[in-house]
Amino acid sequence: MPAPQRYVEWINQHLGFNPRSGGPHSQTLSRLIHDDLVEICPDFRNTCTTVSSDYRLDVQVFNPHRGMARTVDYVHPGEGVVRLSIENKTLVTAFGKARKNRYGDLQAYFGHLHEIERRTIVAATLVVNVAPEYQNPDWDEPPNVHKNVAKIVASTIDMFRAFLPFRSHTLNLHAKAEAFCVIVINYDGRNPATLHVEPPAPQPDDLFSYRSFLSLISKQYSERFPTA
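^ that's the sequence the OP posted. Answer follows.
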């Protein structure tokens, strides 16, 4: 079962978790993506059998050009270089300024990792909530209510399309990702969540779909780090 469906199952086993806390839900999604890449990418799978740690979470990487370190959610190491790094973001409780902040965070993250190592495949996911009402577990207040939430989600996804075209070769130094996907859920914070697969969720042939996400990562991993 692909990671988005398994991620929703995890949500339903942990109803009431705070999506702003990072931590377990982000790490769970990273592990599930890792499992899918092992399944579809032979070069990735072969590398995982030769390194001591298949993946590491919450790892600090140092950028010598800026003299600063950054913590990233998922790192796949090998031969002294970070081969693949994936960061997971969510927009579950609020949009507005939050989506602009997430966009800026990711743009900085792409640039930071590529300045350290041009060959690194840098990717990210964005989980977006299409539920018209959401109860934040940490707020003793009425639920957030969004009017025409499908339109809000669609405009949010359109904003992140500025990441296109994706970075496809190591000579490109722009702050772009090699892959990015949007996972749309319907979750009110209290009742079981569902994976939302109809528009405005990216459709299978969309570059922001999870299928495209895995395909892009697999293709570039095999091109940059072949095992045969």
